[in-house]
Amino acid sequence: ANVYRTVNIIMNQSYAVKLELAVEGGSSVEREYYALKELVDIAGLPCLRWFGRESNFDALVIDLLGPLLYQLLQQHQKFCVSTVAYLANQLVSRIEQIHSHGYVHGDIKPQNILMGLGDQCRTIFIVDFGLAQKYRHPTTGNHIPFRQVQCIRGTLAFSSIHSHLGSELGQCDDLESLAYTLIYLVHGSLPWLNKDRRQQVSSILEMKQKIAVEVLCHHTPCELATFLTYTCMLSFSENPDYSYIRSLFSTLG
Fold it and tell me: Which residue range or ranges hold the Protein kinase domain (predicted)?
């Protein structure tokens, strides 16, 4: 999907609009619309304004937000520990709320994390729910069974090892992606980011499987290593201890 800034000329109000070619079976923009409808009461998620079809495109209108974390990182090269701790505490709470509504995001990364604007300038937003999916049965509330889906979901650099292996995603996978994101923000890079694109899938998976947590988290607070280790130890259907995770970062702020 492509994202554009648009203006309501009657209200003189700016919004963001996502456009994607409509396809049989539903576009990612359409899937995002249905997810956001169910997540509407969560702070730090984009406010849904309108969804419909224009010409051959699905269009989703949401509130305009501020800069991407990825853009801010390009300006500063890396973030200080206190900033990352501040981001981590909000992001863990956002992910907890998403999970409490029966969804996994499926693509946590710096490009999908934005700052707010105006009165919400200190609020951290998670966006892009085109890959979000339910991990609980809509009627029984039971956790979906583990299965192989034979495809990688998310973005290679930040996706979980389970995703690389073609497994169904659970709550633990969003948190593992968050761990890679936070390490990236502290370091300004990840060891596997410069791999040749033709070898990315296999080489990134191999590095994630083989690299020691202490090496990956070198020159970062030990709490990041503890967090990554914890996420990798969670089972597919296990409910994470979000309070414990927040406690890891509360002392760093």
Answer: 1-253
The pLDDT assigned to 198 comes to: 58
Q: In whole angstroms, give the CA distance from residue 173 to residue 192.
A: 18
Tens-place pLDDT, residues 57-91: 999 999 999 999 999 998 988 899 999 999 999 99
Stated pTM of the model: 0.94
The contacts of residue 216 (CB under 8 Å, 6+ apart) are 183, 190, 191, 225, 228
Q: Are residues 171 and 53 in the same domain?
A: no
Same domain, 43 and 147: no
Mark whether 107 is an active-site residue: yes
Sign of the C-alpha dihedral, residues 220, 226, 231, 232?
A: positive
Is there a single domain that holds both residue 18 and residue 88? Answer: no
Separation CA 250–CA 234 (nearest Å): 21
Q: Check 41, 58, 107, 241 and give the catalytic one.
A: 107
Based on the structure, what is the number of domains in the chain?
Answer: 2
- CATH number, residue 243: 1.10.510.10
Q: Pull the structure tokens for residue 218.
A: 């070198």
pLDDT tens-digit map of 171-191: 999 999 999 999 999 999 999
Cβ 112 vs Cβ 125: under 8 Å = no
CATH of the domain at 6: 3.30.200.20
